[in-house]
Design brief:
alpha/beta, Maf protein, 7 helices, 6 strands
Length: about 170
């Protein structure tokens, strides 16, 4: 099975490989595609749209059996105070599409204020930590949970949810 993941971020590729590890003869290829949403998706709707667009765009970009899109964003969650880091995944074979969500982590107020002010989460986290690799390594999730869960774990979980229509007959 040849799977395209709509990003060149190594964390997104590893999350895809991990979520699909039980499939024999699997190859996962990273492909740079547009998400069609803002660099910092805000809200569930925009984050889901980015994941779906990436999945469809990568499927259109090559001879893939399955296209995968993974998108991180931020959102205000009804019933909870604060701004949350969110993760969404989409998978498509061209006929059907699956969607799944990862964990939600409340952002510290000082980080949330900067995001609300128009900055992107990755650069804000890099600035807060004095580094330049948070999005390509543990992600904000890893930083905010001290490694209990990291970006790869969250994206893998989201993709596992999106794979339902492709691994069971319940969605037909």
């Amino acid at each position: 099975m040849r799977v395209g993941v709509g990003s060149t971020n190594p964390v997104k590729r590893r999350a895809t490989e991990s979520a699909l590890s039980s499939i024999p003869e699997l190859t996962v290829e990273s492909v740079a595609v547009e998400s069609g949403v803002s660099e910092q998706p805000f809200g569930e709707r925009e984050t889901v749209e980015g994941a779906v667009n990436r999945a469809q765009n990568v499927l259109d970009a090559g001879e893939f059996t399955l296209g995968v899109g993974l998108e991180g964003g931020v959102a205000e969650i009804e019933g909870a105070d604060g701004l949350f880091l969110i993760m969404w995944a989409a998978a498509t074979d061209g006929d059907q599409i699956g969607r799944g969500a990862g964990p939600r982590l409340r952002l510290p107020d000082n980080i949330a204020d900067r995001i609300r002010g128009g900055e992107e989460l990755g650069p804000v986290m890099n600035d807060a930590l004095g580094t330049d690799d948070v999005p390509e390594t543990r992600g904000a999730a890893g930083v905010l949970t001290n490694g209990i869960i990291d970006r790869e774990d969250g994206l893998r979980s989201a993709l596992a949810g999106a794979l339902g229509p492709f691994v069971t007959g319940f969605y037909r």
